[in-house]
Design a protein that fits this description.
Blueprint: H1 2-12, E1 18-20, E2 36-37, H2 45-52, H3 54-77, E3 85-93, H4 96-111, E4 117-119, H5 121-128, E5 134-143, H6 146-159, E6 163-165, E7 170-176, E8 179-184, E9 187-191, H7 227-233, E10 238-242
Parallel strand pairs: 1-6, 3-10
Antiparallel strand pairs: 2-5, 3-5, 4-5, 7-8, 8-9
Helix pairs in contact: 1-6, 2-3
Length: about 240
């Protein structure tokens, strides 16, 4: 997905692009993603403020919100069919003490000019079916089919002249006069610049190893849940984000 977004943006601004994929487009971590477009960063405003300062934290949140809106606008502008559904998100907690901290977090967001609505325990139960202590409700998020979105972005780039190479593993990248040379089993590509857009830092990028830590991640998936089952479960059409880690 990241490579597809970069290719679409670069070709839109007239850059000559080649996309090189070791497998098939959208078959890697994109296909295994949660398919959720969250405008909120992984860390709340308090945590980011403590690490980077209030001004930088607000900028991180603002840029993240803009990025989500820009992505949805791009999908609409290119008329990519990928089952986009706009969804509110609930950042909830089961713990009363955490609920009070969540309320303080919401006040910090409001002070920074960021939107959000407080849900008490009863409102959280109505919205999600979860018997929790409270939640922050945010608008502007979405879910989509990531494979279709990725393929649509690549198609847009290809339509503007991007060269797409699948089943082409890059084994080596070397600096040469005027740029870089990429070596694959099928041949070489010379370019002024290269963007490495893998889903994760891998063992092939040894110079980067000291800057990344590999963490475990997982996704649980079910068959589509029908309306009657959703009503029995009390599940609303919202995206859930637990404060617990």
């Amino acid at each position: 997905m990241t490579g597809a977004m970069i290719a679409e943006a670069f070709t839109r601004h007239g850059v000559h692009v080649a996309v090189v994929e070791a497998s098939r487009i959208a078959q890697g971590s994109t296909a295994a993603s949660t398919a959720l477009l969250l405008q909120e960063p992984d860390y709340d405003l308090k945590a980011l403020s403590e690490r980077y300062g209030r001004r930088a934290a607000k900028r991180i949140w603002t840029l993240s919100h803009h990025a989500a809106r820009h992505f949805l606008n791009t999908i609409a502008r290119l008329n990519i069919s990928c089952d986009v559904s706009r969804r509110d998100s609930l950042y909830y907690t089961l713990d009363e003490d955490r609920a009070r901290e969540l309320q303080r977090e919401l006040k910090r967001r409001h002070k920074a000019g960021l939107a959000g609505e407080w849900l008490d325990a009863a409102a959280l139960r109505r919205a999600s079916g979860i018997a929790g202590a409270g939640a922050i409700r945010s608008t502007g998020n979405a879910q989509l089919n990531p494979m279709q979105a990725c393929v649509g972005l690549i198609a847009a780039a290809a339509g503007r002249g991007a060269a797409i190479f699948e089943r082409s593993t890059i084994n080596r990248i070397r600096q040469v006069d005027g740029g870089v040379r990429l070596y694959s089993s099928a041949g070489t590509i010379d370019a002024k610049q290269v963007v490495i857009a893998t889903g994760y830092a891998t063992k092939y990028f040894r110079p980067l190893a000291g800057r990344f830590r590999l963490r475990h991640t997982y996704v649980l998936a079910t068959n589509p849940i029908g309306l009657l089952a959703r009503r029995r479960l009390g599940m609303g059409k919202v995206m859930l984000w637990d404060t617990a880690r």
